[in-house]
Amino acid sequence: MSRRVWLALVLAVAVVVAGGATAWAVSAPSGTVGHDVSYPQCGTALPTTGRFGIVGVNGGKVSTANPCLSAQYAWASGTANGADLYVNTGNPGAISTFYWSQSGTRDPALCTDRNSSSDAGCAYNYGWHGGQDSLRIARNALGSGVTGRTWWLDVELANSWNGTPAANAASLQGALDALVGGGIGTVGIYSTSYQWGQITGGYSTSNAATYRSGWAKAFTPKRALESAPLWIAGLSTVDAASKNCGTSFTGAKAALAQYSDGNLDGDLVCGAAPTTTPVPTTTVAPTTKPTTVAPTSSVAPTSSVAPTSSVAPTSSVAPTTTPVSTTTVAPTSTVAPTSTVAPTSTVAPTSTVAPTSTVAPTSTVAPTTTTRPTTTTPAPTVPGAPTAVTATTDPTRGIVLRWTAPAQTGGSPVNRYVILRGTAPGRETVLGVLVCRTATCAWRDTSVAAGITAYFQVAAMNDRGAVGPRSPEVSARAR
Q1: DSSP helix/strand/coil, 139
Q2: What pLDDT does 448 receive?
Q3: pLDDT of 401 higher than 90
Q4: Do 279 and 392 lie in a common domain?
Q5: Phi/psi class of residue 6: alpha, beta or left (left: φ > 0; alpha: ψ in -120 to 50)?
Q6: With helix as H, strand as E and coil as C, how does 162-206 read?
């Protein structure tokens, strides 16, 4: 996006934003490693090898609560450097069942047209109220001390995004401003270059002034979104995470980089090499597994289909396929496809053999055939759709969804799947992301009420963060 803004406007915005700025910080020293957990880890053992923990406040969507927040925060607080928190984000539009502004109201931003996907004021208000609700959830469960910790905005495609890039960025600005206004001194962004680009259009230091110019009639940011420290998502090794510390998708510095530590997410504080080589994760007593996953708020989740349990495989499922993992992790950013191999040079023909007498030569040595250029087809970056998708009534409770991994991975392993669900054909919305590292996967949905028919689709997500097309729709009636 081109940056064509009057200098006076740039200076005015810079003064306003800088006025609310505070120094960014991370709670643990450089080179320290820790882990992040949330609702998918309810009922599972938590690690003891890390020196800090980051805990999800929400249950996968804005306005929902992680039912194990208190227990997981207690675990993280017991580490050497304590606990930080992260919250879900989104911009579902007027279909939101949590909150959406009325046209012509200012709450706190001016929402001009609630039905417009490009209305930045309406989107800002959604993010702001979502941030306020996450603060309420955390304070009710953990006390007022949570404001002294670092908080992170979880920005992933698996959340609900129905706005234009500028409106989506406005929603994130609203969430940031709500947390800052609530007393949180340090707020960062968790995402990948690919997902950030898809959601916000690549909002960064180079174009932030243009975005703010478009937002000016609706609201003025309290803190520069592009200055927030970054937590780079990843699925590879701690060494790869260390390299990711040198990347940025907004122009701000990377403070954390994620990696895979067995079945859990490990995190490295950027700025130095890991202080220790992570060892296989040992465990402490599991957090209490709740009987229900109900939000602490009386309002419904942002999805049009409100899940009452986490999007993670239940231990009671007995599928005919290999059980799936319960850990949900974020994708790494995409990379460009491999370039075409340059053609090899043409082989020069050999010279004609000179005659040995006055008799004309009977033939000449034929030139060798020109070598044909060799080419390679760039590997696609998007995985294919899952196959053999079925939905069946579980004999005990709910619906069992099964599928097979796509043959086309998009050049990177497929270990996660976006689950979409609806109560009518063609009306599926994102329910969450499920981790499955095997060729066949199964998940039981126990949140659909008995007698209700639910409709499902599944989309594959590879380790580069690219999401493929949805599978054909399947449905079943819950028991």
Answers
A1: helix
A2: 86
A3: yes
A4: no
A5: beta
A6: CCCHHHHHHHHHHHHHHHHHCCCCEEEEEECHHHHHHHHCCCCCC
Residue 409 and residue 277 share a domain: no
- Quote the CA–CA distance of 147 and 186 in Å, as a whole number: 9
pLDDT greater than 90 at residue 46: yes
User: Is residue 22 in some structural domain?
Assistant: yes
pTM for this structure? Answer: 0.62
The rounded mean pLDDT for the chain is: 78
Q: Domain end: 284, 305, 336, which one? A: 284
N-to-C CA span, the chain: 51
Q: Which domain holds residue 252?
A: 7-284
Say how far apart CA 324 and CA 313 lie, in whole Å.
7
* Contact (Cβ atoms closer than 8 angstroms) between residue 326 and residue 438: no
Q: Which two tokens stand for residue 190?
A: 């968790």
**Do residues 278 and 391 both lie within one domain?**
no
pLDDT in tens, 410-459: 888 898 898 989 888 988 877 777 888 889 999 988 888 899 999 999 99
69, pLDDT greater than 60:
yes
Q: How many domains does the chain divide into?
A: 2
Q: What's the CATH code of the domain at 426?
A: 2.60.40.10
| Residues 373, 425: Cα–Cα separation, whole Å | 50
Instruction: With respect to residue 462, please indicate whether it lies within any of the assigned structural domains.
Output: yes
Tokens of 350: 């050999």
Domain finish residue from 247, 263, 284: 284
> Distance between CA 329 and CA 359 in Å, rounded?
81
Structure letter (DSSP) for residue 147? G
pLDDT of the residue at 312: 37
Residues 16 and 134 placed together within one structural domain of the fold: yes
- Tell me what percent of the residues of the chain surpass a pLDDT of 90: 57
Cβ neighbours of residue 318 under 8 Å, at least 6 residues apart? none
**CATH no. for residue 151?**
3.20.20.80
| Structure tokens belonging to residue 459 | 């989309």
CA 260 to chain centre: 15
